[in-house]
Design brief:
Structural class: alpha/beta
Largest sheet: 8 strands, mixed
Shape: globular
Number of domains: 1
Number of strands: 10
Oligomer: single chain
CATH topology: Spore Coat Polysaccharide Biosynthesis Protein SpsA, Chain A
Radius of gyration: 18 Å
CATH class: Alpha Beta
Order of helices and strands: EEEHEHEHHEHEHEHEEHH
CATH architecture: Alpha-Beta Complex
Strand content: 15-25%
CATH superfamily: Spore Coat Polysaccharide Biosynthesis Protein SpsA, Chain A
Number of helices: 9
Distance between the termini: 37 Å
Strand order of the largest sheet: 5-6-4-1-7-9-8-10
């Protein structure tokens, strides 16, 4: 089985806002919904799992409220932390952005019809690698031969066609895992400053692995699709994504 896991439990500190990153609006639609819709349109993805944490409680509520077919896998994992999180939540935030969020968010938001099995999974939200290890361990106990595509919630522009192309390339290789990289020149052309640069290549935030919590031999897939370069970590990134979405279609 091919599963897709949306990593949506991080703190999103670079946005410097009280709005949880998965709920940040792009064209009046939350980032999380863009990613869900893209995965839902994939020919190959069979299940979509959203990894949430106590860093993103509003995201979890949003999913429950707007995706009626959402099922609970391990709802009790972090419930004991909820009170602590809420009591320590930092109420200092960017009021202008909060106002913009409230004025643009459609309270009557309707999700598109989802034809995939959709779940959420509670994780610690401690850091990416800790959550990745937990998720692999969790699914290894169910079936250690599943294929899992991991995609960050801040990649709203990666279309189902790109996702399916990456999956096809994965199955043409013998390695257990695949990581997608993009040439730094593509980011430079968009005036995007990457957090990491490895010999001119930037990791996209999309990886494919077997459901085994082991070190897996990696195939590096290098692609130059602009959609892979736009990772929404800051307000500048959000503006770049918005301009890309609203560009004149050729």
């Amino acid at each position: 089985m091919i599963k897709a896991v949306i990593m949506a439990g991080g703190k999103g500190t670079r946005l410097k806002s009280n709005i949880e990153k998965p709920l940040v609006l792009l064209n009046k639609i939350p980032l999380i919904s863009h990613v869900i819709d893209n995965l839902n349109s994939s020919k190959y993805v069979e299940e979509v799992i959203i990894a949430v944490s106590n860093n993103t409680p509003k995201t979890k509520n949003f999913l429950k409220d707007n995706y009626s077919i959402l099922n609970i896998i391990n709802d009790n994992l972090n419930d004991n932390l909820n009170d602590s999180f809420n009591s320590n939540f930092n109420s200092n935030f960017n009021s202008n952005f909060n106002s913009n969020f409230n004025s643009n968010f459609n309270s009557n938001f309707k999700s598109k019809v989802i034809n995939k099995k959709l779940f959420y999974l509670n994780t610690s939200g401690e850091d990416y690698l800790t959550d990745l290890s937990f998720i692999l361990d969790f699914f290894e106990k169910i079936d250690d031969n599943d294929t899992i595509l991991f995609i960050n919630v801040d990649l709203p522009l990666i279309s189902s066609n790109i996702i399916d192309n990456i999956l096809k390339k994965y199955f043409l290789n013998d390695t257990l895992s695949l990581s997608v990289y993009i040439p730094i020149a593509v980011l430079n052309n968009l005036n995007i400053k990457p957090s990491y640069d490895f010999d001119g290549l930037v990791p996209v935030g999309l990886n494919i692995m077997k459901s085994k919590n082991i070190v897996q031999e990696e195939f590096k897939l290098i692609l130059a699709d602009v959609e892979l370069a736009i990772n929404v970590n800051t307000f500048d990134d959000l503006n770049i994504a918005l301009k890309f979405l609203n560009r004149p279609k050729s």
